[in-house]
Amino acid sequence: MSEHTALMQSLKAELLRRRDELAQRLEAIKDDMSTPLDHDFAEQAVELENGEVLAALGNEAQAEIQRINRALIAMEEGSYGSCVTCGAAIPEARLKASPFSARCIACATRSEA
Q: Which of the residues 17, 36, 54, 98 has the least number of beta carbons within 10 Å of its own beta carbon?
């Protein structure tokens, strides 16, 4: 097995593991948010604030799952590791650090600016 193939298998396994972890986290958030509010008004205020935090965490988890799914599709299509903006190869170090990166560092920096 080539070094590139081994790297791709390792990254795919990491993406799948992370997606499963996020799916479990989302399920826990949904369960938490479906719990009825306490009868005490002060406690309700705290629970509502906690609900907002959980909703934000859930949104972040969903966004990460979408990035992971796009990376997995790119792997299947053979375009994984190429910048979606300029087409340049994304360095292996960047893919190892963030396996769902879709842009090279230069394009990612430009898009964030």
A: 36
